[in-house]
Design goal:
transcription, about 75% helix, mainly alpha, globular, DNA-directed RNA polymerase, DNA-directed RNA polymerase subunit beta
């Protein structure tokens, strides 16, 4: 029986158990795709503001592990893989908005691309603005053009990666371990950006499943 669009979307115990067991990769893959498609399309058909808000703030209450159990084990260029990465971006921002805002601003100064406009952060971008950006990107998955939301997430990751790289360069001579840590973070953000960009392109071709 279809779930009521006007109520929060819940995953069944069976769906969670299938992912948490993890013994059958084919089953994990199928459940990940089915839950992602069901959640996204049902909410987008009737985006009740209260439901959308609960989905945006889901990891604030339940932690990122709950999302990871559902969607983190499938390919990056799939719908569940893309949703997982957008939630991950929001968690990264919320863990240290002051530092992330600094990296974002450094990246904006360092590279002259349209990424600043695509990301859509308010200027100047401090911790409050970067937190707002995280929520707006995730809102866009459920209430706007999903490809645009993915592109915004990718632009954010590219700018933040550029900023982290810039800070790593400054620290290279005096704080080697810190520089190495920031370089690794920049690489992960760059990879996230590439994955989200590809997912956006697939969605526009109606090929993101």
């Amino acid at each position: 029986m279809p779930r009521d669009h006007h109520r929060p979307v819940h995953f069944t115990d069976k769906e969670f158990a299938a992912i948490q067991g993890g013994d059958d990769p084919a089953l994990v893959n199928r459940v990940a795709h089915e839950t992602a498609n069901a959640l996204l399309h049902r909410v987008r058909e009737d985006p009740d503001p209260a439901v959308v808000e609960r989905l945006v703030t889901y990891t604030d209450v339940h932690g990122i592990d709950a999302i990871a159990e559902l969607w983190a084990r499938v390919g990056a260029h799939t719908l569940p893989g893309a949703l997982w990465r957008i939630y991950l971006v929001r968690v990264v921002i919320r863990q240290n908005p002051e530092e992330i805002a600094y990296f974002f601003e450094r990246g904006t100064e360092r590279i002259g691309t349209i990424d600043e406009a695509v990301a859509g952060a308010e200027q100047p971008t401090g911790p409050a603005e970067i937190l707002t950006l995280a929520d707006r990107i995730l809102h866009g998955l459920y209430t706007g053009d999903l490809a645009v939301a993915l592109d915004r997430g990718a632009a954010f990751c590219r700018l933040t990666a550029a900023g982290a790289t810039s800070v790593a360069d400054d620290a290279d001579l005096t704080a080697g371990p810190r520089a190495s840590e920031l370089t690794r973070r920049a690489l992960r953000l760059t990879e996230l950006a590439a994955d989200l960009t590809e997912a956006a392109a697939l969605w526009r071709r109606d090929s993101l499943d």
